[in-house]
Amino acid sequence: MIKILFVCHGNICRSPMAEFVFNDLVKKLGLEKKYHADSAATSSEEIGNPVYPPVRQLLSQKGISTKGKSARRIRKSDYTEYDFLIGMDKYNIRNMKAFFDDKEGKIYSLLSFAGLDRDVQDPWYTDDFDTCYEDILMGVNGLLKKLENE
Description:
- This protein is of the alpha/beta class.
- The protein has 6 helices and 4 strands, in the order βαβααβαβαα.
- Helix content is 42%, strand content 14%.
- The chain has a 4-stranded parallel β-sheet, sandwiched between helices.
- It is globular, with a radius of gyration of 14 Å.
């Protein structure tokens, strides 16, 4: 099984959105025995908090539940446990590279899988959850396409 860890600053908006969207897509395609995603934060400020209410609401409208998810911080063991560590923005990437010794080249930017060289903007600051969702959906679809073509 290929395991993916989506990472953002607090693990309450972007990375759990990517986790749940990816796992929902994989389930709908009947690939849940092949792939699994989780998510984590680079910071500790939201640890233990649930998914941010506007994200829960947006995903719920799309038939995706975030029940049981609470924010957690990245751990050293994540590097060996996961095949891909995928950040939402350049700061997440920088923080992951400082935290992990990325000898195996497992750290990526989500939108790189969609052929884009830009960040997934943080809706905590932009209040634009729909654009965040569209970016994440684009990145997750690109990631799955890459995985299925390898």
